[in-house]
Write a structure and sequence with these properties.
Layout (H helix, E strand, L loop, with lengths): L10 H17 L11 H8 L3 H5 L3 H5 L18 E5 L5 H10 L4 E6 L2 H14 L4 E5 L12 E7 L8 H11 E10 L9 H4 L2 H4 L2
Parallel strand pairs: 1-2, 1-4, 2-3, 4-5
């Protein structure tokens, strides 16, 4: 099974397309997209707790576009340092920050400036002082090696053109016995080259 995009795929164009789509999700979450978004989707399809999401600022939840619920896999322990790859507007990030508590830290990483600004505003509105936002992507995490107890990600690694490198980055930043909690889209068989070369399919 392939772990990297076709060699002739324009990865710079792919990156720009991803940033364009998710900038629109940040600014106009009720717009036309080919994927689900928002609080009701997260609760009804992905089994998030409605009360927990309702306690977050609407800014953090309206642009939610995950594919699963990585925080159901294991409880974030108090005092932990958590990295959220592709944090978007901050739904999972803020939930993780609350679980980590004032003695912990939640670092959100996203490649889209508008999402980072929205997550920062949401964290401020929630009164969470243990949240830090950094621009970056899955292929080169702006995080010190061996420094975090948890890495979380929700529907982001499928967008990375080099999965092997993305997973290597996760394990680089995790401490020994650290935990990787992620939800994503996978396929059971090799996709035809025509599909693997379609940027529109890669970018959403």
């Amino acid at each position: 099974m392939a772990v990297a995009c076709p060699v002739d795929l324009d990865t710079a164009r792919l990156r720009a397309e991803i940033q364009s789509i998710y900038s629109r999700v940040a600014s106009a979450p009720d717009g036309e997209f080919h994927f689900h978004r928002g609080l009701d989707y997260a609760v009804d399809f992905l089994r998030y707790d409605r009360a927990a999401l309702a306690a977050l600022p609407p800014l953090a939840v309206e642009s939610f576009a995950g594919v699963g619920n990585p925080l159901r896999m294991e409880t974030i322990t108090a005092g932990s340092t958590v990295v959220d790859i592709g944090c978007g507007a901050g739904t999972d990030l803020l939930l993780a920050a609350k679980a980590a508590g004032p003695g912990g830290r939640a670092i959100g990483i996203d490649m889209t400036q508008s999402m980072l600004r929205k997550a920062e505003a949401a964290a401020a509105a929630a009164g969470l002082t243990n949240v830090e936002l950094r621009q970056g992507d899955a292929l080169e995490l702006p995080v010190e090696s061996g420094s975090v107890g948890f890495v979380i990600s929700n529907g982001v690694l499928n967008l990375a053109p080099d999965k092997r490198r993305a997973f290597s980055e996760v394990f680089r930043v995790l401490r020994p016995a650290g935990r990787f909690l992620y939800a994503d889209i996978v396929v059971r068989s090799e996709l035809p080259e025509s599909i693997r070369s379609d940027i529109d399919l890669w970018s959403g």
